[in-house]
Amino acid sequence: MFFITKEFTFDAAHNLTMYHGKCEKLHGHTYKLQVTVAGEKQEEDMVIDFLKMKEIVRDEVLSVLDHSYINDVLSQPTAENIAEWIFNKLAGKIRGNSFELYEVALWETPTSFVRYRERDGW
């Protein structure tokens, strides 16, 4: 089993409407996103082409979130909710006979991030 990861960045603004503190005010982040695919090598001795991953993430996620007000997409755009939304947007698109989306990791700051994957019996 191989785990293939591609990294992206995007800039966006949000505010947390159900939070009481600094983050309830409008503010922005340069987010770092890692998308990980799990699978076995295919006929070209690759699990998935990095270029294909880039195209899918660009079309499904970055085109919506980059330079956006994320509250227009999610009513409570916590890091957890954004990561789950990204995973769900990609899960049906990054899937093949020998690979599937494994995990999304999303950094709001250089020291604070969340990982999301479908529950696997923990």
TrEMBL record:
Pathway: Purine metabolism; 7-cyano-7-deazaguanine biosynthesis. The keyword Zinc applies. Zn(2+) binds at residues 14, 27, 29. It is an enzyme of class 4 (lyase). Its EC number is 4.-.-.-. The active site is at 23 (proton acceptor), 67 (charge relay system), 108 (charge relay system). One of its GO terms (biological process) is tRNA queuosine(34) biosynthetic process. It catalyses: 7,8-dihydroneopterin 3'-triphosphate + H2O = 6-carboxy-5,6,7,8-tetrahydropterin + triphosphate + acetaldehyde + 2 H(+). Its cofactor is Zn(2+). It comes from the Bacteria. Binds 1 zinc ion per subunit. One of its GO terms (molecular function) is 6-carboxytetrahydropterin synthase activity. This is 6-carboxy-5,6,7,8-tetrahydropterin synthase. It comes from Mesotoga prima MesG1.Ag.4.2. Keywords: Lyase, Metal-binding, Queuosine biosynthesis, Zinc.
